[in-house]
Amino acid sequence: MTGYFGSYVVVAVLLGVGVAIFAGGLLANRLLRPDRPTAEKLTTYECGVDPVGEGWAQSQIRYYVFTYLYVVFAVDAVFLFPWATVFADPGFGLTTLVEMFVFLAFIALGILYAWRKRVLTWT
Amino acid sequence: MIQSIDYWAIAAPLILALTAGLVLVLDAFLPARVGGARNVLGLISLVGVLAALGVVAAQAVRGDELRTFCVPGAGASCSFVMDSFTEVFAGLTLVAGAVVILLSLAELAGGRIPVGEWYFLLLATLTGAVLLPAARDLVMLVVALELVSLPVFALTALRRYDGRASEAALKLFVVSVVSTAVMLFGVSLLYGMTGAVHLDRVAAALQPTYADGSASSSAQQLEITGAVLHNGSAVVTVGVVLVLAGFAFKVAAVPFHFWAGDVYEGAPVPVAALLSVISKAAGFAGLILVLSRALVSEAAAWTPLLAIIAALTMTVGNVLALRQRHAVRMLAWSSVAQSGYILAPLAVHLDIVSTMNQWVERGVVDVSSPDQAARAGLELSSISQVVELSNQAGVLGAVNASIAYLVFYAAMNLLAFAVVMLVSRRHPGNQLDDYRGLAFRSPGAALSLAFALICLAGLPPGLAGLFAKVVVFREIVAGGLGWLAIVMAINTVIGLYYYLAWTARLFTPAPAGDSRTVPAQQGRTPVVIAIGAALLVTVAFSVVPQLVLGTLG
Q: Domain NADH:quinone oxidoreductase/Mrp antiporter transmembrane, which positions (chain B) (predicted)?
């Protein structure tokens, strides 16, 4: 087990150790504890409050647009990171800086469009 | 490591992209008047497309090869190349784009579709379709192909509150995303095996080793050893097949054709025209680039596959078209069948070694004299350069036969779609029976459609279609794929039936009391101009096919 795949052995061993500790703890708990279930004890635990309603909840559809915009910008921000690591290096310079602002301008165009189309107002 | 940019080289896609941005901003800031702004945006888009076409024409006339986004250093590989291949595809895309914009002017006159978004998305697609044939690395190829595909989903769905359009858009989206995923997997395998993304570097990395175990270092070795050992490991073959499958989705080749009928029918007519010409041309450009520039040495893996796909595609497309009663649906399956004809010449085995030997025999290249070889720019150290050379010498006619067929097909198919657009304004049902008696109601439109259909069938006087088929036949037979030529001949006969049945409908009297007509809306003029332009090009191709055949050499 050497070479490329050998380097993954450590990961596999670590995973095995983690699973063993977790499963061992639960197993020890199960073996040592007294077990006297009642109907009350088997209900879902919710900080001492009686559980109410379903697990599904609706959120306001208006959040959708903002979530969407956030995702767009989060994805675009990823492109800034590799750029940020090199733009001050020798050989790069003003051109590199301007190029990134051209990119940002194109994104800004999208925001401008969204603003004019009244997507950003809370209706 | 800043790459210098040659702005003249990228002028055409740049103009399209800036026009797209301009249209979007204008749409947001122009006061929303009824009618006026609608045509203004269309005309601005049209001007942008024509300007880009002018740039491409100027580049073609000057005839020099423009390269930019090159990797610095010796043996530079460039990501963006404007050569005659690119110019043919870009020209086709832009002319087709102008026709689609003219059709859009009529489609948008109905007022059910948001105008600014429509033209913005249309121009974005055109930008991708012009960028794609210029792409010479795998990353740019995939990005450009996505730029062609993504706006089309939205364009299809832009007719709001229309169930069929939404269904078509969803189908197109799912199929396209799956095909992109498949293709990306193939591309990543190729990158993993070769460590290069530029097509010429991939070709060099896959370059076969020869019988004596050395890499081919000189033309003599090519000549002497003759037999090329297949270098492809299984992983490369898997990569090739996956890339092929991804492109097969895009050009609607069997067995990845299911989406075509529903999507074409559900989409607005201009979008169907866009899908059948521009999107298809982009798919073929990518396919040809990858196969003929990066994967030449793997030809043994992909040529048999491509031959079978081509035979299946033309057969299934034709058989499905036989029973259609909906005009656009029939054109959809007919375009699937035509894809088969375009694929067929690509299946001709690119036998590099025998090609080279022929050259040596004919004295085109004297490999024994390093002097002359150098003078001719021959550095026969890599297969890709050999291919480049054989391209220049016109020995590699197979790829050019495909491109020629594609150009002819684009002209006649656009003509058919333009007339369908005109008729669909009075008959939104788009049934084939609505075309009964069209020759008596509007003879010009009927004759144009009849000409387009006869061209698609490949009969005289539709010489454009005939020439296209002859070129393809010649390449297949010369390439030794006799069985494929027979399959294609049978399919041409099947095709005759449904094209001629439609043509015959045009000249039969309409049944009395046809109630499915609606009063025509405004916006007839642009469609008439579109029909005129498409007719002009198709007739020109029929009279002087050298326009296309000569350019391709």
A: 135-348, 379-494
